[in-house]
Amino acid sequence: MERLTALSLATMAIIxxxxxxxxxxxALSIWLCTTWPERSExxxxxxxxxxxxxxxxxxxxxxxxxxxxxxLTSVEPxxxxxxxxxxxxxxxxxxxxxxxxxxxxxxxxxxxxxxxPRALVMGGVVTELMFLLPVIGQVLYLxxxxxxxxxxxxxxxxxxxxxxxxxxxxxxxxxxxAWKPDKTPGPHDPV
Length: 191
Hints:
Layout: H1 2-35, H2 37-49, H3 51-74, H4 79-107, H5 116-130, H6 136-157
């Protein structure tokens, strides 16, 4: 009987930990999207418009950066740099989750225009619940995470703009008219 009690307590602790973790990820996505709305919109556009490219770029960047981070952490003088690199990769993954949440909310029929936080919560809950499905849910969750990471990387390197203000949107299917900066053109923007 004691063993059954211990098992049920451990199960409840795991469920509570997952609830707190998944709720924190959703809350962080809302914070990122409201703090940097333009950049988040570009990430969501890349996630939606270039799914396979984002998935492959996310996979490649995750494998390479995690490998380098783990390699650096094994060398004592460079361990801090390795940990910072792994933390940076985790931050990129978290920001990419917001694009997955937005996409899921769109598929559920929840429009972004009415309220981005509401859409992120709706999409986030469904996406995070998907993780609880055995095997298929975790494979899909990993795919959306890697695709989100790829969308963040594609957005960060597009046109060399980084995190600056007035970032032009990604062009859709070769439409160069989409490249219109909000402010005066910078050194990397077309004139």
